[in-house]
């Protein structure tokens, strides 16, 4: 919700910010990480969401809440020899885990080689003959897992281990000619949330291709932004607010977040900056691409973390000064 | 106990010795969830037994109750998993429970993971393919079902008959991409491996399926995949080029056919042909205009 509000340029009051921190505090476990609610065991997806939320709040109180040392211990318990992570103790294993963990530790400056060990192998093995990436090696290429895998490879600095040509083709073919939105898998239905999972893979792809081919930053531009924006604006808005999967579905917070994120991705250009060694917003002279009213323009999101870039910069700068405890 | 299943736990005599523990959301939580009283009641008892790590039959009852109310409650599933294994509980009953939950919420990660944990402990997967088939009958593309199917087959060596099973799925729906993916997976991973004849047979099969529905992307991707798996190239199979030409002429202009011709021309570095085909594709597959432009520019 916080990210949705950010994308709609809604300011966060001090009161809401503080309540957010206190609410998330009830979700943190002394053994490390955050669960979905008070009394729930820690889970890497809810930890990813909690740390992102705290990064959005961005206050000292928010940063001070996070017990990084316990978090690191917990993550080490989840790490598997094949490079993957369990989603929680005794839980399931798939490529989401690698993304949630690596994105979290990057923001908190607790990146450590043992956490990243073999992860690039696991991800590379999960790329299928179709070119997209599945949850674990062998399973079908899928948009959600493809985003997680690709963003994780970006964090690992190993995008060159993927077959980028096959991945490009698969991604481009996930945009449907009639509906104009993205499907998650071949021959399945369009869904507004894939506006981010599939659409959001394009900035990563374009930067990876630019690095591989030595092309000018921002030169490669592969998907039909205008068409995606049309799908979102025409088909994904709830009559009483919120955003949704497709017409005849109800809006919910998940779709609101990811459809808005997808709209933002479709409006902005990005480029690989070799000096900062990061993907940066680069709308260039033409500026953002906005379908419909100029008021439809949303701020750019960070294509790896999916929170606003300034929140990423601020939290990383904060924890860069502090060394992890062990 | 079963006729008490509608009573709150606070009214059940077998729970009288337990003091319920309410959820501590803090003083002014953001976006607090409006739990039903039935849910809060059950969860208050769960929080209580968490404190003592109780693994009794009444706890199995309680966790089942909560899971029925919330099939994605990962903490409760995990607790049940630990309890069932610690107590050496009736694993076959657990399989029935999982099936009940899977029918209700076929896409819950927790349900499928739990089944896998039970089967690992049981060491007997003889019921699993049939269970998965029942679930695929409800939703032939259920991602968890196919993923679990791969685990069952590879762990328990149930490869025989899987290729034939994919045929069945594809007969029902030639566009079932999960079944195509499964077919590739079997070929690639089965211990008996594959021969050149197997690859040639798969090429023939893919081309037949392509003719059934030429705009179906699945067999085209599969064709590319198995040719590469077999260490071959597309032009090792004359019928491939024939099919592509057939489907890109006669006013049909099937984009997948043109795209495959493009791949073949890229492989032999025929720059002019590539650019010519990309130009046609920009017109015939306009949603991907930028991609076809990029492909044209990438040919060197």
TrEMBL record, chain A:
GO annotation, biological process: prenylation
Coiled-coil ranges from the UniProt annotation: none
Documented EC number(s): 2.5.1.58
CC terms in the record's Gene Ontology section: protein farnesyltransferase complex
Catalytic activity, as annotated: L-cysteinyl-[protein] + (2E,6E)-farnesyl diphosphate = S-(2E,6E)-farnesyl-L-cysteinyl-[protein] + diphosphate
Catalytic EC class: transferase
UniProt keyword Metal-binding, yes or no: yes
Family (UniProt): Belongs to the protein prenyltransferase subunit beta family.
Binding partners and assembly: Heterodimer of an alpha and a beta subunit.
Protein name listed in UniProt: Protein farnesyltransferase subunit beta
Organism of provenance: Spizellomyces punctatus (strain DAOM BR117)
From TrEMBL, chain B:
Coiled-coil annotated residue ranges, if any: none
EC number from the UniProt entry: 2.5.1.58, 2.5.1.59
Keyword hit for Cell membrane: no
UniProt cross-references to PROSITE patterns, sorted A to Z: PFTA
GO biological process: peptide pheromone maturation
A cellular component term, taken from the record's GO annotations: protein farnesyltransferase complex
InterPro entries (alphabetical): Prenyl_trans_a (IPR002088)
Listed GO MF terms: CAAX-protein geranylgeranyltransferase activity; protein farnesyltransferase activity
Region entry Disordered, spans: 1-25
Obligatory cofactor(s): Mg(2+)
First-tier enzyme category under EC: transferase
Keywords recorded for this protein, A-Z: Magnesium, Prenyltransferase, Repeat, Transferase
Keyword Coiled coil among UniProt keywords: no
Protein family per UniProt: Belongs to the protein prenyltransferase subunit alpha family.
Protein name: Protein farnesyltransferase/geranylgeranyltransferase type-1 subunit alpha
Organism annotation: Spizellomyces punctatus (strain DAOM BR117)
């Amino acid at each position: 919700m916080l990210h949705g509000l950010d994308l709609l340029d809604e300011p966060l009051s001090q009161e809401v910010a503080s309540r957010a921190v206190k609410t998330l505090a009830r979700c943190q476990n002394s053994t490390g990480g955050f669960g979905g609610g008070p009394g729930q065991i820690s889970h890497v997806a809810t930890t990813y969401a909690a740390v992102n939320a705290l990064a959005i709040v961005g206050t000292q109180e928010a940063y001070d809440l996070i017990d990084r040392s316990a978090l690191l211990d917990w993550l080490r318990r989840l790490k598997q020899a094949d490079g993957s992570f369990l989603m929680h103790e005794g839980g399931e294993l798939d490529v989401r885990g690698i993304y949630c963990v690596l994105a979290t530790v990057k923001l908190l400056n607790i990146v450590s080689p043992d956490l990243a060990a073999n992860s690039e192998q696991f991800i590379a093995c999960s790329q299928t003959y179709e070119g997209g990436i599945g949850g674990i090696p062998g399973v079908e290429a899928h948009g959600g897992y493809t985003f997680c895998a690709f963003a994780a490879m970006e964090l690992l600095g190993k995008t060159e281990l993927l077959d980028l040509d096959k991945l490009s083709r698969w991604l481009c073919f996930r945009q449907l000619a009639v509906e104009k939105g993205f499907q998650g898998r071949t021959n399945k239905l369009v869904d507004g949330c894939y506006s981010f999972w599939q659409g959001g893979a394009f900035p990563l792809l374009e930067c990876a291709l630019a690095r591989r081919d030595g092309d000018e930053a921002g030169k490669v531009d592969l998907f039909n932004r205008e068409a995606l924006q049309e799908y979102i604006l025409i088909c994904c808005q709830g009559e009483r607010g919120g955003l949704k999967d497709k017409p005849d579905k109800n809006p919910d917070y998940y779709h609101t977040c990811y459809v808005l994120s997808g709209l933002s991705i479709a409006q902005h250009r990005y480029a690989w900056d070799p000096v900062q060694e990061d993907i940066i917003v680069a709308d260039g002279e033409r500026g953002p691409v906005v379908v419909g009213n100029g008021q439809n323009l949303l701020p750019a999101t960070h294509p790896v973390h999916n929170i606003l870039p300034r929140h990423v910069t601020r939290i990383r700068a904060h924890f860069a000064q502090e060394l992890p405890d062990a | 106990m079963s006729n008490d299943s509608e009573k709150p736990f606070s009214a059940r005599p077998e729970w009288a010795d337990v003091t319920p523990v309410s959820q501590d959301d803090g003083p002014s939580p953001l976006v607090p969830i409006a739990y039903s009283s039935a849910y809060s009641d059950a969860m208050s008892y769960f929080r209580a037994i968490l404190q003592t790590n109780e693994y009794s039959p009444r706890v199995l009852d309680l966790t089942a109750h909560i899971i029925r109310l919330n099939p994605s409650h990962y903490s409760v599933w995990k607790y049940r998993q630990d309890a069932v294994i610690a107590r050496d509980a009736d694993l076959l009953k657990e399989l029935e429970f999982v099936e009940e939950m899977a029918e209700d919420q076929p896409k819950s990660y927790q349900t499928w993971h739990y089944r896998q944990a039970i089967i690992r402990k049981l060491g007997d997967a003889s019921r699993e393919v049939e269970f998965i088939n029942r679930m695929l009958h409800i939703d032939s593309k259920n991602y968890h079902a196919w993923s679990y199917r791969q685990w069952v087959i590879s762990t328990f060596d149930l490869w025989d008959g899987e290729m034939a099973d994919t045929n069945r799925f594809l007969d029902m729906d030639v566009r079932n991409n999960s079944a195509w993916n499964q077919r590739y997976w079997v070929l690639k991973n089965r211990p008996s491996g594959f021969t050149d004849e197997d690859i040639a047979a798969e090429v023939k099969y893919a081309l037949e399926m392509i003719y059934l529905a030429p705009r179906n992307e699945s067999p085209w991707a599969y064709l590319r995949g198995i040719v590469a798996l077999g260490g071959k190239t597309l032009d090792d199979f004359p019928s491939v080029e024939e099919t592509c030409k057939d489907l890109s002429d006669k006013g049909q202009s099937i984009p997948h056919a043109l795209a495959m011709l493009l791949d073949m021309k890229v492989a032999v570095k025929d720059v002019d042909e590539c650019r010519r085909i990309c130009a046609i594709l920009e017109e015939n597959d306009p949603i991907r205009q930028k991609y076809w432009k990029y492909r044209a520019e990438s040919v060197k």
